[in-house]
């Protein structure tokens, strides 16, 4: 009965919404029977099937969307993994190519010259052969220098060195960065190879011209100027590494100097590296640069006698104006103004010797302080004219004594400041000269010729192509140098020489070996000689000595 009442209420509810199904409910002893009309049954079945189809469609759409999202995610992951794999394979390929090219050391040709895949270390050495006029006003100097660059070239190993052509091999493309105008530039090459190590190409050049240098004139006239030659390259810092020569130091010939009356050259040469940005290339790559700097100290004697003492005498003469009686101030002022104008005129004459600078030099400070003293004297002569007559004489004597004491103290302080401040760099330069000489001797002893050591590891500067070979002679081995003449060799007197020899070294070597060997052993089997066709290699110490000897006569050492 409760179920019947619910169905009836439900039917009334549907009837109220516009649906009027008729359901017959009969009760019997066995239970309640429900009977629906045929039309109501068909409508309910249709609605049920429609709802079922909608539900299945929705479920299928939701499952399709989920499958689509999962498929999209899978494709994205596959794409990212594919890109990573492609990038990884490309890196592996590049590494394999780099390793192979490095192993074979084969250069790659392009329109800009011969390039290498790895950065090449180029060692540089600069020798200042002659320093010409140092123009303080234009801030430039004239010089003649010898520049040596060397680098390893693996492609020469196993080739015919006698047929060496520098144009067919890699070159650092060096140039002088701080030159003014056209310079004279003579370039030649040589090869050093001992048959075991990697061959090394030497590029040597002799340059002569005018070079720009920013002069520091704070300590003028006791200043020390840096004279630099900067060598740069058109290649980028990723291609070339410019460093100082590890075997030989840069040097300077202090004997061939034109301005010795005005300057004194220090013996040491400092080297440094930096990076330059070329304004002619659109890329932002920087180019390496190597600077060799020598130092020239100005001789201040001329300025001491012709400037300092003259200004000192002019200023001291101002104290002589106190000899005129204080009641004649017009005469005192006339003399004081004359001395002041003389000092001003002298100052303008001194300024013409210097470039236009925005700071004061040591000489400017002294001259200006002396002019201040003259101005103070002039001011006192104007004040004494209005002082009472009874105290004027006393105050005039006090002023004279006070100004004399102040001027004396000024000179004492100025001399102390000159010694401890302006002369300090000169003392530093002398200390560096001693350190440089010590380091140079150590280099010569380390890489030069040693007693009893016939296997030298380095060959000094020479204007030929040199091949070093090892020739067995019994138990020991001797190094021999076979030289092939370069087509553009500068020295015409040595064109017929094919082998670099040193007679003095041969004699010393024979004497040392004869002293070491027993008297019964013939040393002709162990020493190179002219009869067997063997020659002793010129060592770096020998060539260095020859170079320095030729420096004394002002000529090129190779």
Automatic annotation (TrEMBL):
- Positions of transmembrane segments: 307-328, 334-354, 366-386, 398-422
Keyword Transmembrane helix present in the record's keywords: the answer is yes
One Gene Ontology cellular component term attached to this UniProt record is: membrane
Membrane protein topology class: Multi-pass membrane protein
Regions of biased composition (Low complexity) lie at: 1-10
Instruction: List, for all copies, the residue spans of the domain called Neurotransmitter-gated ion-channel ligand-binding.
Output: 93-269
Specify residue ranges for compositional bias: Polar residues: 21-47
Where is this gene product found?
Membrane
Q: Where is this region: Disordered?
A: 1-47
Q: What is this protein called?
A: Neurotransmitter-gated ion-channel ligand-binding domain-containing protein
InterPro entries membership: Neur_chan_lig-bd, Neur_chan_lig-bd_sf, Neur_channel, Neuro-gated_channel_TM_sf, Neuro_actylchol_rec
Keywords from the named record: Membrane, Transmembrane, Transmembrane helix
User: Which Pfam families has this protein been placed in?
Assistant: Neur_chan_LBD
- Main localization of the protein described in the UniProt heading: membrane
Tell me the organism: Adineta ricciae
The molecular function GO annotations come to: extracellular ligand-gated monoatomic ion channel activity; transmembrane signaling receptor activity
